[in-house]
Model the fold of this input.
Amino acid sequence: MLAVLSVEVRKLNRSLALLLAAAAPTLIAIFAFAMVLRSEKPSEWSMWIGSGTAIWAYFMLPMCVTALTALVAHMEHGPRSWDHLRALPVPRWTLYASKAICVIGLVVIMSAAVLAMTIGAVAVGGLVKPDAAAVGRLDLAAHAWVLAQMALAAVLMIALQFWTAIRFASFVPGLVLGIGGTFFAVVATSAKQGVFMPWQMPVNILATEAWRVQTALMLGGGLGLVVLAAAVIHLARREG
Amino acid sequence: MAAIETEGLTRIFGRRRVVDAVSMCVPDRAVYGFLGRNGAGKTTTMKMLIGLLRPTSGGARVCGVDVVRDRIGAARTIGALLEAHGFYVHLTGRENLDLTRRMLGLPATEIDRVLEVVDMLRDGGRRVSDYSLGMRQRLGIARAMLGAPPVLMLDEPTNGLDPDGIADMRRFLRALPERAGATVLLSSHLLGEIEQTASHVGIIHEGRLVLEGELARLKAELAPEIGLRVDDADRARAVLRGRDLTLVEDAEGLVARLRPGDDHDIVSAALNRDLIEAGVSVFAIAPRARSLEGIYRAASAIASHRQETV
Done:
């Protein structure tokens, strides 16, 4: 498994995955920087970080998962390398599991980058415009915990996107699913029923009602891991 | 022990029997030409041997390992070049080989070894996107040879190559058992390619293995033929009608197909005498080389006739 995983990481290193992983946190950071400059009075750190985290959860995260799963799938669909990989003397489930681990790993890295880059952007904004510099205590651990929970709640969405992207050689089904899911996550962000929709589970980590947070974690994380395991088993067992 | 052995290997897609009870035997260290027209079932058979498709019924063993019961064990004995190479074109040839090498847990020295076998040591550092089709085929063979598997399965290795590339590939494939110490299963729909490369041949026709054996032996068993170029083919046909042979006409003229065991020289002299005495001008009369094409045509015709009469 480790050998297959290391090969997957090497392939990702030589692809545009890192550019994609850097783009989303950078855009959120640029937006936060612009908002600081636009601001007339100082705001709490928690407001700035909360704002960046929310954008990440309801829009950027679903879009990035859609793009990342399409990317890792098309690394093999594009050159038609599945037959070569599946003919190798390695357990087939490791081929798919290593790809899924890479996607989850990149989501975790991107989550950390969202936090780090947003803090950096707000800090630089405060230096450029001292009147709008962030005030109050920066509770790094609490923000990191929220982002970690979001990543966990995103596992069901990742599993569904991953399954679709690998199952179909065309990138269209995965994109349609991802765009559709993101659309509802954006237009119905605060809908209570949204907690049952995989693409809205990460943003529900920010809900004030405890049951919504718990449901998002249980369904997104717990059911997500089950669906991900089912996806890996199904993909490994099917022909072609 | 045979390197590859199948028994009643069958694969049905929907209502279509694509591979029908194929029982083949590829001897150790042979270059086995798996011959058949496009869609005859060659690739499906190879995919079952590699473990990419499950047989509907029957079984197959590679180096004694059952490919269905122990896919990974069988895969360890096989290096495969498939129709779709699956190279990452933005990486170099060497980097592509390295990805597979790591998955197989082989030492880094393997890359130089296989690049040397396919004469690509100098080109290994170039991106695959800059490779010609022939170089990609050779890189595919290099990748199949990683870990020195005892069996190489090459699906249409000359597909898309130019005449020079085909000639190079033939020379390379002929030398493979000696250079790599491997048994080669080579699928193709090109008679010339198999004839000039293979030591053994298996002919698949509409999913059925209709003929199999050592090429030299099959050729020896083929009925001898005499080619005739005359001024009047119709008169020649009438003159030779009484003789115990079959007359056919092809692009090069008349062909007299003799009975097995007939002596070329004696029959040639007799035919020549009959024709001259009848006033037919004979421009050329010579034994035809026994070719794989003759074997293929005969085998396919018998198979087609059997199907029609069933």
Q: What stands out?
A: The mean pLDDT of chain A is 92. The longest helix of chain A spans residues 92-128. Chain A touches chain B at residues 3-4, 6-7, 10-11, 14-15, 75-76, 79-91, 239-240 (CB under 8 Å).
